[in-house]
Every structure is written in structure tokens, then in C-alpha cells.
């Protein structure tokens, strides 16, 4: 579904990402984990066509990202909820679909808010919603768009840990229902393990050594997560989970 | 700041009471100290002027209002259009924006004599002057507002390849509204000043011209009567802008 080859991205004075090869299958849930500043956001934005790669190519379902954008096949969820403050929850959900020029489906938007646990808050403004609720609206907005690829950039990064775990369980429930291809960026190893079918570890060479800062991020390891689905909170306590987390942590800190 | 800021209509009771007290004091002073009417006429004398020749004040008020409305509409349209252009075309922004901001410190009244030389006395010249005065706060306010769209919101729209017009109307403009209205409120105040100045220098009718003529004849009562008509015009226009703002923003 997503194919990236020899991808690298440089900004004016920083090389953010280098030598990325990536394949994500249809319906697969891939998590990307790494320390901040290692190029995770850059990777996601490049896949989604918001950032031009310096070298290499990306395709989504065989097409360049721009084509996928026009067809509303890409659903972004950013760290910041990016809801419009003057619109209600349900208006925020329908808004993006309207902007994409697709047929409106207000009833579908309301149903989706109900399934994401926002029953009764459909007409609330973002200022009346908690951080977790706002992210639920942002996720509902991406799903309602009808995108088949969800690109999520630390969507729970600003939530407290308890809400974060709950949101993780919910995103999996939602994903079971509408089988989307997901690329989910996080800096939390447990979150990456809990959510993913596969977990990519991104790091820059100099990460352990701040003086060497400026080297681009690369995919340094890749793990298949052998945890049965469906997963819920009980997974957090399991031994397999702990072992997987330890393996990913090891890769992050440079063990091989 | 966002469109979230609800604009309350001020409670009118206290200000009205203040006005009544002020007029009463004025009256008391003129009576108690027997002030000669050519220095300070009593409120009754001013009222008598208004009632004695309502047509004079009405026709001049209509002239002044016409200049404000036509000039204001032209200035707002030009200012808004230029703000949209300047914020859409980066090259234009870098070339023009500093001058638009700097031009705000230039007293526009100094331009009126120049207009007189180029365009002569007349309604059109006065309208042009009002438009000029209104133009600057509108262009600066709107441009500032339109630059305020968070990048993340633009990214969101780019991710679905939303067309520029939709992006403008649904995201950029709503984000800009508080600044647009801040500019409009300045503009509405300046438009009244602009119209009066224009009627002193660039035209021979309207309340401004009436005040100037009355001043030459030392008719303070006529001047005050004209001011009494000008005041509600200015307040009404300002209130109109406030009402518009309330209608398009939310609480
Ligand atoms: N728009 C940009 N312009 C210049 N440098 C950028 C830009 N975006 C990110 N960077 C730099 O690229 C590197 C990777 O950033 P980012 O992709 O945001 O990492 P992450 O999401 O993992 O924290 C950082 O050094 C960051 O400072
Ligand atoms: Mg990031």
C-alpha cells in the first residue's frame, strides 16, 4: 500500500532523514518509534506528500502522494488536534470531508463520534472538550474522510498516560472495525509495541551523543510484534509484551 | 486571539445616565453664570436650532453619511482586496507590506490639500479622501489576520488537496476575523473624521462644511447642533460594525 525507496529529506541546514526503504501492506498497522528530532514527523509528512523528499520516491497504492491527497485517501492525525475552534465536534468531523469535495454524510459523522465515545458531545466546541476528546474528534475526522491510509503523528503525545492507554485500546477497536492502513508515529516504546503489527525503530547516529547532532535519522531496526489480537489493557501486564518492549528499547539504545 | 472572542454589546444604562447628567450640568452652568450664548449656548438653544431648521441638518447629515458610506465601502473593498493579494503572493508582501504599515503613521489629513490640487473640490474628491483614510487600518488588520492561520491547519487542508478558495473561506478568513474587525473599528472611527475633514477642505456641503461656516460666523449653537447630529452617526456606524462582528463570530 505504501512504498518508499531510498528516501532522504534535507532541510536548509539539517539532514533529517536518510536511506529509508519502507513497505506497508494494506490493512497493516505499522508503528514508528524513536527519540524526538530523529525525523519521525519528517517521514510521515513525506509519505503524506506534505514534504518533498530530497531523494527517493514514495507511492501510495502505486500513485505519488499528491494523487492520494486529491483522492482523499490520506487521513492525517497530528500531535496538535488542529480542530477549528469555531466549529462543533461534528462540524469538525464533516469539515475535512467537505474540503476534500466528497459527498457529505452528517449521520455517519455522528455515528462515528458515538463509537469513539463522544456521545453527547457532538455539538460541543473544542474549547469544551478535554485533550483526549479533541484527539478523538481529530481521529474521527480522518476516518470520516474515508481515507484508506491513516498517518498519525504522536496523536496521544500530549495526553496523560492513563488517557493514552485508553486511547490506544480504542484506536485498535476502531482499526478492527474499519481496517485501514496505519502508520503511527510515537516516542513511547510501550505504545509502539502495543499498537503495531510491526514496529520500526528510527534513530540518528548521533542520538546517544549530543555533540554529533545533525546526522539524519535512519530506520535502524524493525520488529514484528508477536502479540495476538485483539489486544486490550491486559496485554500491558503480559510477559511477551515486556519482552517485546525490552527488545525495542535495546535497539533504540544501540544494542544489536 | 481567535474568533472565540465574543463581543458583548455594552450595557447602555450607565452611559445614558452620564449623558443626561452632563447635559443637565451644561444647562445649569449656562443658567447659573449667565454665560453669553455666543460663548456657550444652553442645550435648549442648541435644540431650538435643530428644531427650528431640521431640514438644514438633515440634508447635511445625509451628505456626510453618503461620503462616509461610499468612501468607506470603497476603502474597505480596496483594503481587503490588497490584503488578500499581499498575503497570497509572498513577493508582493515583501515589497509592499512594510510601506502599508509605515503609512499608518502618516497623518492622512496632510494629503487632503494634495487631493485638492489634483482632483479639485467635489463629492468624488471627498469620497476618495474617506476611502484613503479607511483603507490603511483595513489593509493592515486584514493582512495581519490572514497571516495568522496556523500552519498545521494549512497542512491539514493540503493533505486533502483542498482548493484555495475553500481554504480561504473556511479556514483563513475565519481565523482572520478578529483582526479584520479590529481594523474595521478603527476604520469606522476614522471615516467620520475623514468625512468632516474632507468637508472642510475638499467639498462645500455636509455637517463638516456647516460647522466650518458656523465657526466663521461665530454661531456656536449651530456648531454644537451639527456636532449633536454627527455624534449618533458615528456611534450608529460603530454599533453596526459591532453587530456584524457579533453575527459572524460565536460564543
Ligand atoms: N521545516 C523544517 N525546517 C528545518 N528543519 C526542520 C524542519 N522540520 C524538522 N526539522 C529538523 O529536522 C529534524 C527532524 O525533525 P522531525 O522530523 O520533526 O523529528 P521528530 O518528529 O522525530 O521529532 C530535526 O533536527 C528538526 O529540527
Ligand atoms: Mg515529531
Automatic annotation (TrEMBL), chain A:
* UniProt keyword terms in alphabetical order: ATP-binding, Nucleotide-binding, Transport
SMART domains, A to Z: AAA
Q: Which SUPFAM superfamilies match?
A: P-loop containing nucleoside triphosphate hydrolases
User: In this protein, which residues make up the domain named ABC transporter?
Assistant: 2-229
Q: Which PROSITE patterns match?
A: ABC_TRANSPORTER_1, ABC_TRANSPORTER_2
InterPro entries per UniProt: AAA+_ATPase, ABC_transporter-like_ATP-bd, ABC_transporter-like_CS, ABC_transporter_ATP-bind, P-loop_NTPase
A Pfam family assignment: ABC_tran
Keyword Transferase appears in the UniProt entry: no
Q: Name one GO molecular function term.
A: ATP binding
This chain's protein is named ABC transporter ATP-binding protein
Query: Which organism encodes this protein?
Result: Haloplanus ruber
TrEMBL record, chain B:
SUPFAM superfamilies assigned: MetI-like
Major localization listed first in the record, in broad terms: membrane
List the InterPro entries hit by this protein, alphabetically. MetI-like, MetI-like_sf
Sequence ranges assigned to domain ABC transmembrane type-1 in this UniProt record: 61-239
As for subcellular location, the record says:
Cell membrane
Q: Which UniProt keywords apply?
A: Cell membrane, Membrane, Transmembrane, Transmembrane helix, Transport
- List cellular component terms (GO): plasma membrane
Query: Which spans are transmembrane here?
Result: 12-35, 68-92, 99-120, 126-146, 180-202, 222-244
Task: Identify its membrane topology class.
Answer: Multi-pass membrane protein
Q: Which domain of life is it from?
A: Archaea
What family does the database annotate?
Belongs to the binding-protein-dependent transport system permease family.
This protein is called ABC transporter permease
Amino acid at each position: 500500500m505504501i512504498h518508499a525507496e531510498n528516501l532522504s529529506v534535507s532541510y536548509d541546514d539539517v539532514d533529517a532523514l536518510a536511506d529509508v526503504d519502507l513497505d506497508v501492506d494494506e490493512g497493516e498497522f505499522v508503528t514508528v518509534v524513536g527519540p524526538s528530532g530523529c525525523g519521525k514527523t519528517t517521514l510521515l509528512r513525506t509519505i503524506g506528500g506534505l514534504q518533498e523528499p530530497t531523494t527517493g520516491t514514495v507511492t501510495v497504492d502505486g500513485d505519488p502522494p499528491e494523487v492520494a491527497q486529491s483522492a482523499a485517501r490520506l487521513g492525517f492525525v497530528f500531535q496538535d488536534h488542529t480542530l477549528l475552534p469555531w466549529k462543533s465536534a461534528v462540524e469538525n468531523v464533516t469539515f475535512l470531508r467537505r474540503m476534500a469535495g466528497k459527498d457529505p454524510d452528517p449521520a455517519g459523522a455522528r455515528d462515528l463520534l458515538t463509537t469513539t465515545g463522544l456521545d453527547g458531545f457532538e455539538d460541543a466546541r473544542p474549547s469544551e472538550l478535554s485533550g483526549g476528546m479533541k484527539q478523538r474528534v481529530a481521529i474521527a475526522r480522518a476516518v470520516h474522510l474515508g481515507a484508506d491510509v491513516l498517518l498519525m503523528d504522536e496523536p496521544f503525545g500530549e495526553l496523560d498516560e492513563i488517557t493514552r492507554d485508553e486511547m490506544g485500546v480504542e484506536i485498535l477497536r476502531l482499526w478492527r472495525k474499519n481496517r485501514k492502513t496505519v502508520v503511527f508515529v510515537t516516542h513511547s516504546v510501550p505504545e509502539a509495541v502495543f499498537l503495531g503489527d510491526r514496529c520500526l525503530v528510527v534513530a540518528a547516529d548521533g542520538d546517544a551523543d549530543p555533540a554529533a547532532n545533525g546526522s539524519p535519522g535512519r530506520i535502524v531496526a524493525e520488529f514484528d510484534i508477536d502479540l495476538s489480537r485483539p489486544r486490550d489493557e491486559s496485554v500491558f501486564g503480559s510477559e511477551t509484551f515486556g519482552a517485546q518492549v525490552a527488545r525495542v528499547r535495546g535497539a533504540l539504545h544501540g544494542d544489536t | 486571539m481567535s474568533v472565540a472572542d465574543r463581543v458583548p454589546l455594552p450595557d447602555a444604562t450607565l452611559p445614558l445616565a452620564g449623558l443626561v447628567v452632563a447635559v443637565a450640568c451644561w444647562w445649569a452652568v449656562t443658567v447659573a453664570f449667565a454665560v453669553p450664548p455666543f460663548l456657550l449656548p444652553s442645550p435648549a438653544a442648541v435644540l431650538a436650532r435643530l428644531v427650528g431648521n431640521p431640514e438644514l441638518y438633515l440634508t447635511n447629515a445625509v451628505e456626510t453619511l453618503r461620503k462616509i458610506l461610499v468612501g468607506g465601502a470603497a476603502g474597505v473593498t480596496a483594503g481587503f482586496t490588497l490584503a488578500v493579494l499581499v498575503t497570497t503572493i509572498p513577493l508582493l508582501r515583501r515589497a509592499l507590506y512594510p510601506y502599508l504599515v509605515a503609512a499608518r503613521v502618516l497623518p492622512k489629513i496632510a494629503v487632503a490639500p494634495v487631493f485638492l490640487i489634483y482632483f479639485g473640490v467635489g463629492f468624488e474628491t471627498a469620497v476618495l479622501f474617506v476611502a484613503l483614510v479607511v483603507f490603511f487600518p483595513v489593509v493592515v488588520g486584514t493582512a495581519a489576520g490572514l497571516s495568522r492561520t496556523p500552519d498545521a491547519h494549512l497542512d491539514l487542508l493540503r493533505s486533502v488537496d483542498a482548493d484555495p478558495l475553500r481554504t480561504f473561506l473556511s479556514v483563513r478568513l475565519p481565523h482572520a476575523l478578529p483582526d479584520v474587525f479590529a481594523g474595521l473599528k478603527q476604520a469606522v472611527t476614522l471615516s467620520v473624521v475623514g468625512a468632516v475633514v474632507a468637508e472642510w477642505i475638499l467639498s462645500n456641503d455636509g455637517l463638516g462644511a456647516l460647522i466650518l461656516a458656523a465657526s466663521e460666523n461665530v454661531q456656536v449653537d449651530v456648531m454644537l447642533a451639527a456636532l449633536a447630529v454627527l455624534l449618533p452617526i458615528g456611534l450608529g456606524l460603530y454599533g453596526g460594525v459591532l453587530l456584524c462582528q457579533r453575527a459572524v463570530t460565536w460564543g
